[in-house]
Design brief:
A hairpin with a 6-residue loop joins β5 and β6. α3 crosses α4. The protein has 6 helices and 7 strands. 33% of the residues lie in helices and 24% in strands. The longest helix is centred in the N-terminal third of the chain and has 19 residues. The protein starts with 7 loop residues before the first strand and ends with a helix. It has a single domain, classed as Maf protein (Alpha-Beta Complex). It is of the alpha/beta class. The chain is elongated. Strands 1, 2, 3, 4, 5, 6 and 7 form a 7-stranded mixed sheet that branches.
Length: 193
Amino acid sequence: MTSSPQTLVLASRSPRRLELLRRIGIEPIVCPADIDESPFFNEVPIAYVSRVSKCKAETVARQCVNEIVLAADTTVELDGVIFGQPVDDNDARRMLHALSANTHRVHTAVSVLRPGAAMRTVVVTSHITFVTLNSHLIEWYVATGEPWGKAGAYAVQGAGGVLVKDVQGSLSNVVGLPLREVAGVLRLKGARA
């Protein structure tokens, strides 16, 4: 895959990340990375998102050799445990029960790789506190279908906003791409908006 030099390639199939980039005036080429995103045994959450983000960037950079590649990975962490995307409704229920009335962390690693330059990776962490979730609220939310494809089984920007009591840190980070940090890294790497 080739295009004009210095075009930004988003190594993600996330419509939320694409929308966030568009909000800051960037229209990237979308080229998802097809990699195994399973955590390693005893891998800590920040190391996990950093590794996956870097792997996504490297994988896509091999296909888009003359482009700037931006990759990201987001996970939810509660007490050191990684909460990825739920595998089914029961897994979503399990995650939501665990997050109920607790404060968890959302970590997003963003990696930018430019031809001929070293990769730059930043990790941003936000703290999210959930309201107390009763079984009726959890069942309602799972029935919306929104937990699918979302780390921690919720989307703060959608119906999942009713589950959230407080956000400390970057809200765009919780959605999947910390915009302030992305804008800074892209300026350093010379990407065109």
